[in-house]
Amino acid sequence: MADIILGIESSCDDTSAAVIRDGVLMSNVIASQDVHRAYGGVVPELASRAHELNIVPVVSEALSRAGVKPSELTAIAFTRGPGLLGSLLVGTSFAKAAALSLGIPCVMVNHLQGHLLASFIKEQGVDSPQPEFPYLCLLVSGGNSQIVRVDSPLEFTILGQTIDDAVGEAFDKCSKMLGLGYPGGPVIDRLAAGGDPSRFKFAKPSVPGLDYSFSGVKTSLLYFVRDRLAEDPAFLENNKEDLCASFQKTLIDILMGKLVKAASQTGIKDIAIGGGVSANSALRARVTAEGVKRGWRTFLPARKFTTDNAAMIAVAGWYRYLAGERTPLDIAPVSRVAGR
Length: 340
Ligand code: KG4
Description:
The chain is an alpha/beta fold. The protein has helices at 44-66, 85-102, 111-116, 167-177, 184-192, 215-231, 235-266, 281-294, 310-322, and strands at residues 4-9, 14-21, 24-32, 75-81, 106-110, 122-123, 135-140, 145-150, 156-161, 270-274, 297-299.
């Protein structure tokens, strides 16, 4: 009998449900929440309410697109954390109630592990090579910037991480500062494509080991723009593309510096990326180019699987289900420390 897993993701501002059959993706539905755009960032209370509105229609749509009846499901995988607690509560409560009413097990998933395993999402008719364990994953999103050694579908070790802002936060906050809107990453990515990345220089942090820091580069951009605007009020408008390209290059230089160091220290040559920022065109190009130069095999998930999605939760949950994991129904979500 096939294993049919329903995955549920609600850690931040995307309500998502996906169905996989024996590891192959049947459907992946994502309802993004535009309500936050007006505030320039995710408003937790509004996110929880939107999840509550979206969860049932999103799950119904995922089952219908997969052609699967609820009674055919083997298990339900859900994101337990980390994330916004109110958002996580909606997905967790729904998953537990659905599992209880269907008489099937549920399996909790660490959201980060979902991103780490994004390269393992198999789509019908799509040939996507998978990394071999152990591999390194540069996990870059709105909440995380980490270099992770992935030892198996169930085990990973964080080798380095940000000591302050996440790189996605740097994209988002700087976009806001430049008046470019939210979320900042996609806007900066698009404008940077038409700009000169070597035109402006921003301070890079000096952090020991494999850890990152992104708050200094954000401040460096803030002071730089403030000083230039004092001389020329049209500076921003006339230099938007070059500013975005130069700022983006600085962030990518920082990310790649530590990734190269981690690969050389560990001797690992299978390198994957994941998380929302891994959708960035310039980062993807740099990882690929660096891979060619250094003999790495590089794994870039399809863009639709870089930002939050339930397909990665279903895959991670399936591996846990196969390993015999079952989550008791008295489990609660966690905002910071992710549960196994
Ligand atoms: O993984 P994700 O959807 O949510 C979590 O943070 O868990 O990542 C969202 C982040 C935002 O900061 C957004 O600006 C960034 O990913 N992002 C990008 C791009 N697309 C999304 N950053 C740079 N370039 C992009 N193309």
